[in-house]
Design goal:
alpha+beta; Gyrase A, domain 2; 4 helices; disordered C terminus
């Protein structure tokens, strides 16, 4: 005996009829999570990726700069040897120049003293004798004896005219007795000044036009 379930067929027909009716609506499936949280997570991931790329780029740049620094330091190390030799040469050259300047200064001072003494000797008149002469820097003190004050004045004028002595001043002049003779004992001071040599002038250029006068 065969049985047919008509109730189920009616339910199916009823459901199909409702679906085909004029009030049909399509319902979208509901998302099981919040879209705001998804976007926040994606933004965080993007930020992490950017930070990671920046870090990698900076590390690569730092590595490149370190290689350049190492290369420059290697070049400086290679040049340190020649530079040390050059520095030693400059130091020795400066030492030699210093010694040469000292020698030149000593020679100059020695010749200056000779010139001053020669000028002093050439300025002494007859019948005048020096008993003491001292030079302290650029100041000279002279003491001596003579027969009269006139000879002392003549001596002072000759010192001024020599060009080596300036500000000649008489400190004292007094009569004294030496071996029964009446003499004048004097003391004077003067500044020492070494005259500079005059510059040599070229007279050939001036004489040339004169030699050409009278020519047509």
């Amino acid at each position: 005996m065969i049985q047919i379930n008509l109730i189920r067929d009616r339910k199916i027909t009823r459901v199909a009829g409702k679906a085909a009716g004029p009030g049909f609506k399509l319902a979208l499936p509901q998302v099981p999570f919040n879209l705001g949280i998804l976007f926040s997570v994606l933004a965080f991931v993007v930020v992490l990726v950017i930070i990671g790329l920046t870090f990698v780029s900076q590390r690569a740049r730092m590595s490149h700069l370190k290689k350049q620094i190492d290369s420059h330091q290697s070049e400086l190390a290679k040049l340190s040897g020649p530079k040390r030799l050059v520095d030693e040469y400059i130091a020795k050259q400066e030492e030699v120049n210093t010694k040469l300047r000292e020698i030149s200064s000593i020679d100059k001072g020695r010749f200056d003293v000779v010139k001053v003494m020669a000028a002093l000797g050439g300025s002494m008149p007859d019948h005048l004798w020096l008993t003491t002469s001292s030079l302290d820097g650029s100041k000279m003190t002279l003491e001596g004896v003579t027969f009269s004050n006139i000879i002392v004045a003549e001596f002072m004028e000759k010192l001024k005219a020599s060009g080596y002595f300036t500000g000649v001043e008489l400190a004292k002049a007094e009569k004294t007795d030496i071996e029964g003779r009446e003499l004048v004992k004097f003391s004077l001071s003067a500044g020492v000044s070494i005259p500079t040599a005059p510059a040599l002038t070229d007279t050939t250029s001036k004489a040339a036009p004169a030699a050409g006068k009278g020519k047509p």
